[in-house]
């Protein structure tokens, strides 16, 4: 009889442990990783599409969204942001922190470089904008149009002495990607804790 009670007790303990250690965290993780339509709580579908393009194009493989602190690099000296806190990323699911830094950190790129034309040109031909850039070009995000429409965003090359015929027009995916990058604005005052 004692052996049966011990066996039944062991089975009950294993089942309860399985529920507590496996099933409950599984459903908790499912709730937490549901993709949020828009990062950082903004209600703009273009940002959500741009974020999807950011993931689709693999930007996260070369760019981080977590500036290095003072002890690890020159990001703060460059004015690339401040030491982020966990709450800076609460609106992003899943997070796009990145693990490598082949390209510059994008944590605060919306404040550092808000220009639509600059960002589009950088996507189209990175070395025109930054001669030492190793970023690949994304010309497939653009198309040549003999007659651009009134709503088309045409790349402007004349300021660097290059003329293009026919004009090069940004696709909606390129515009959305730049809109997402422009939304990456982290204000330092948001990072201040109450009472500090």
UniProtKB/TrEMBL annotation:
Keywords: Heme, Iron, Metal-binding
GO molecular-function term, one example from the UniProt record: electron transfer activity
Signal sequence segment: none
Cytochrome c domain mapped to chain residues: 45-185
Family annotation (InterPro entries): Cyt_c-like_dom, Cyt_c-like_dom_sf, Cyt_c_oxidase_monohaem-su/FixO
Protein name as annotated: Cytochrome c oxidase cbb3-type subunit 2
Species of the source: Pseudobacteriovorax antillogorgiicola
């Amino acid at each position: 009889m004692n052996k049966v009670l011990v066996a039944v007790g062991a089975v009950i303990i294993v089942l309860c442990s399985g529920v507590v250690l496996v099933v409950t965290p599984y459903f908790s993780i499912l709730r937490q990783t549901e993709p949020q339509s828009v990062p950082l709580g903004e209600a703009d579908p273009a940002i959500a599409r741009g974020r999807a393009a950011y993931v689709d194009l693999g930007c996260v493989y070369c760019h981080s969204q977590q500036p290095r602190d003072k002890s690890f690099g020159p990001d703060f000296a460059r004015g690339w942001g401040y030491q982020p806190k966990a709450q800076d990323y609460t609106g992003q699911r899943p997070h796009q922190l990145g693990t490598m830094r082949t390209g510059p950190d994008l944590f605060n790129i919306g404040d550092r470089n808000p220009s639509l034309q600059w960002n589009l040109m950088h996507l189209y031909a990175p070395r025109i904008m930054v001669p030492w850039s190793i970023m690949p070009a994304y010309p497939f995000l653009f198309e040549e149009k003999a007659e651009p429409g009134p709503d088309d965003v045409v790349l402007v090359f004349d300021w660097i002495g290059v003329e293009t015929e026919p004009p090069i027009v940004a696709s909606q995916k390129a515009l959305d990607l730049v809109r997402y990058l422009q939304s990456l604005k982290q204000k330092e005052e948001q990072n201040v804790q109450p009472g500090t």
